[in-house]
Amino acid sequence: MWAFIHKLGSPKWFYRISAKLQPWFWVAAAGLIVTGSLWGLAFAPADYQQGNSFRILYVHVPAAFLAQSIFVSMAIAGLVYMVWKIKVADMAAAVMAPLGAAMTFISLFSGAVWGVPTWGTWWMWDARLTSMLILLFLYLGVIALRGAFTSRDSASRAASVLAMVGVINIPIIKYSVDWWYTLHQPATFTITSRPAMPTEMWLPLLLMVLGFYSFFIALTLMRTRSEILRRESNKRWVRELVEEKQ
Amino acid sequence: MQVSDTAPVASAGVALGEPGGNLMVAITATLKRDLTLMLRRRGEMLNPLVFFALVITLFPIGISPDPELLALIAPGLLWVAALLAALLSLDSLFRSDYDDGSLEQLLLAPQPLAALSLAKVAVHWLLTGLPLALMAPVLGIMLALPAGSYLILALSLALGTASLSLIGAIGAALTVGLAKGGVLLSLLVLPLYIPVLIFGTGAVQAAVFGDGVTAHLAILGALLAGALIFAPWAIAASLRISING
Amino acid sequence: MSLRLHARKLACERDDRWLFQGLDLEVRGGEIVRIEGPNGSGKTTLLKILSGQLAEYEGELFWNDTPMRQAREHFLANLLYLGHAPGVKAGLTPLENLKWYQALSGETGNETARFAALESVGLAGFEDLPAGQLSAGQQRRVALARLELTPRALWVLDEPFTAIDRDGVAALEARLVAHARAGGSVVVTTHHELAASTALRRIQLGQGDNLAGI
């Protein structure tokens, strides 16, 4: 087990293995997202209340799922880096942060667009949207902190600590915002919590969620690989690799 | 053992010591040291309080002097302004220690760093959070805050600012090695302040409406307990990172 | 009980640059070890590793044959480190500064000892002045007073001679030798040439082994 973890921790090994894994996730992502969006946008029945505007859920929900999962993955990667000093974990955490921030932004933006037909306004201080906005700030904090250090080692460790502190706080923030919202706006219509959705509506959603996750994994692998090359550019194996390609 | 004549002080043989020593001695000395330092710079100590009063003055001017309207938003205003005032003084929490090298020495003390940093945070709360909480009722009067909620306002602020100091100290520790850490510190810390803000204003609003406030205060207490358990470790880890930045 | 700090194959990488690699080093009781090397060769970093501040290094570090990570508490109880910055609070008097340092090791100490320590570094009469009003050299002397006040076996001193006048330098150098003679040890970086002594050893950093790559 230990040997395996440290082997996985070697950038060189990770670079090789991720090259093999990466195409599968790209294929899965493309397949799932194309099928899911065609099904969801063209074939799933329109909502009895919201008509066709509900279809934005096929982007909004996967993006929101991913936004939260990426923060958790980032914190786990940070923990792995801090405890076992595995550099690849930190490289992954570094590339995940902007991706997570982008997903959070997408979910916020799609939520706002969705707000126009449902609430008649671009922004409501809805519990979920508010939590998402705070999550976006948390992401921006991690990214800014990483960028503020001149020493990359210190930047990595600081960002790891902040991600871990953030991940402990996310559930607390989420519950307190939910509580705050119910206090101020009792029983209004929230976008995503709704009575049981018919199968032909949630199946494409499931495909989209899985597709977004595959996309995230593929993109993280790809970007971690280039981060490895960038950070290890003076290591012998990278130089040999470059010479081979030339 | 032979000792050189030129030695300024003749030392006996050097023996290895055992770890030990009284942790309480170290903690009380750190408390006392920080208190002394802060009390010698009273002007700096007053700044957050003046800031608090100033921000509160801005709202009636910016919104409306109508007491009914002000009373409605007073709990939130008071809490947000107090939170910002507490934030203002955070950057200096570790900075002077970092600049003059005593932070390094603190890290090398044969005592747990988490406990020592907790002492520093306690002083920060004692000299910012607590005064802010005591001052808030006065500003509450100026915002026409309904009677009967003043005690809860002070109490919720006293409880809440303790959590704010603890959480904020993590950010201060992370940014102490950076030349321009101030704005970044706010960016890191403010999102984490939101739960405290929600239950803090919640308590005051409940008091205004005459609802029970125990639940709110209990949650504020729970948040504080959580912060007390986790924050010192995060502060210690962050300081170790910053000292080598 | 004798003192032994030794490192095997110590290497430190900061941001993909090897400051030093494969460094073997041993510090025993009665020795003064001077770390030498040009600017940027990692002297301060090495001192930070040897004083247990920096845990990010490769290789092994032992305190009395116990790995440092396990012996940390015992090690810190025997270490006195003085860094680039003197660690003297400008808002406190020299006496108050020393009092806090004593308390950090968990001792209340006594006022007479603190007066004596300040006197030994030539600060008699300055005990109750805010340290901010002292000169840089005097502030450094306040820090050096800790050498007298807190008996620790291992001294790790980063450029201790900075800002000190000639008499002070001579006294400090004599103090280092006396500490070594008494069985303690000193690890020091300095640009000041130390007088040759039987206790003195030199370790050179930055001699071509800072190549990148494995």
TrEMBL record, chain A:
GO terms for biological process: cytochrome complex assembly. Belongs to the CcmC/CycZ/HelC family. Keywords: Cell inner membrane, Cell membrane, Cytochrome c-type biogenesis, Membrane, Transmembrane, Transmembrane helix, Transport. It is found in: Cell inner membrane; Membrane. One of its GO terms (molecular function) is heme binding. The keyword Membrane applies. The keyword Cell membrane applies. The chain crosses the membrane at residues 21-43, 63-84, 91-117, 129-149, 161-181, 201-221. This is Heme exporter protein C. Residues 13-184 form the Cytochrome c assembly protein domain. It is a multi-pass membrane protein.
Automatic annotation (TrEMBL), chain C:
Keywords: ATP-binding, Cytochrome c-type biogenesis, Membrane, Nucleotide-binding, Translocase, Transport. One of its GO terms (molecular function) is ATP hydrolysis activity. Gene3D superfamilies: P-loop containing nucleotide triphosphate hydrolases (3.40.50.300). It comes from the Bacteria. Residues 5-214 form the ABC transporter domain. It holds the Pfam family ABC_tran. This is Cytochrome c biogenesis heme-transporting ATPase CcmA. It comes from Vreelandella zhuhanensis.
